[in-house]
Amino acid sequence: MNSAERRILIVTNFGHFLTHYNMLVFPALVLPLTGTLNLSMAQVLELSFWQYLLFGLTALPWGVAADRVGGRPLMMLMFVGAGLSGLAAAFWMDSPWLLSLSLAGVGLFSGIYHPIGMGMISKGVRNISMAMGYNAMFGGLGLVVAPLVTGLFNWIWGPRAAFFVLGAINLIGIGLMAFCPLVDAPRHEERSSEANGMLAAFVILLVAMMLGGVAYTGSSVIITAFMELKSPNVLEVVSNIFGRGVSGNLLATVTTSFVFAVGATGQYVGGRLGQRFDPKFLYLVFHVICVPAAFLVALSQDAALVAFSAVYFFCLLGTQPPENTLVAHFTPRRLHHSAFGLKFILTFGVGSLAVKMMGRIDAIWGISATFVALGLVSVALVSSVLVLIWWTNHSAVVAVEGERQLT
């Protein structure tokens, strides 16, 4: 990488870490806030409604804006906006209405990252697959670090301190961008075939990515409870070693962090393998492995549950680098920010339905059935990827035959 590419990757990696960190601070504070605000858990959860809604719904508008004004000013806006919103949450924590407004700001400005950061990488870094792998790994690191850091600061100083940390760590991005100045990739005119991209292929990919959003959101929202309910023997062993003060929830949270850490490794591996293999083939292989892994998670418990969950999340999160590479490949370069915005608004929007789906399945058939359902989602996803591969291969053959006829 040259210096410009390294600067892009440094800033976008930090941004990806932050966007996932920002969105996982509040869930770790739900129970402490019930006591602080004297509200029920349901009422506290409702405070985050606008945060998550704006995080998903604004992805496309942010992407369209970046294609017009460039990604650099919007990345700076993310750091400033999310930082100030986090500090506002700390100052206004005693007022449920103002806290909800502050959290909405965190979601609004955190929603900038995915369409802008991914677009900057796809436009400004030559080895897209490797860069996407590193970038995805830092996003996974945010998933791991957020509950641990938030829990630590809450334990020592309370929820207000955790929100102060949220604000402060985002404002660090301002200094980072001053230290690593970015230059937006120059605009250029694309050939007709390039400008058209591969619209049909991109539409098929959107279907696969929406199913992937269901799998990711569904598995993420249920995995901690799954670990707590289906690992009694592991809890017993840990309690014998460290004493009875270790709760099932604490053990499940730590185990979930471990599983997400394995998933972050999968993101790195997916990016590295993308340098050697066709991203469509890699995308297919990872999702194929997710199918039996999901069913095995549904059937297992204790140590086997941890092992199969690690395999599942390794492959599920490992699909992200080849997936993002395919988005860049199937869309015109001048519209990359908008393309990633469309991806994430559909992924997070449709994926959010998985939350209700998991609750409904658990209520009717039990928690084990949730991963059976996720396995079936992966079956549908694999089918869509096979259609994608068939379509792109067919289009390539047609294009070759057309060129032969012209010559």
Characterize the structure shown.
The protein has 407 residues and is mainly alpha-helical. It folds into 2 domains: 1-182, Up-down Bundle (Growth Hormone, Chain: A); 191-407, Up-down Bundle (Growth Hormone, Chain: A), CATH 1.20.1250.20. The protein is 86% helix and 0% strand. It has 19 helices and no strands. α7 (113-124) runs antiparallel to α17 (336-351), α13 packs parallel to α15 and α14 packs antiparallel against α19 (368-406). The longest helix is centred in the C-terminal third of the chain and has 39 residues, at 368-406. The two termini are 39 Å apart.
Derived from helix and strand composition plus strand pairing, the structural class reads mainly alpha
User: How does the overall form come out from the CA principal axes?
Assistant: globular
Distance between the termini: 39 Å
For the largest beta-sheet, the strand count, sense and barrel status come to: none
* Helix proportion: over 70%
CATH T-level fold name of the largest domain: Growth Hormone, Chain: A
Strand content: under 5%
What's the CATH H-level homologous superfamily of the largest domain?
MFS general substrate transporter like domains
How many structural domains are formed by the residues?
Answer: 2
- What is the annotated CATH architecture of the largest domain? Up-down Bundle
Overall residue-averaged pLDDT value: 84
CATH class of the largest domain: Mainly Alpha
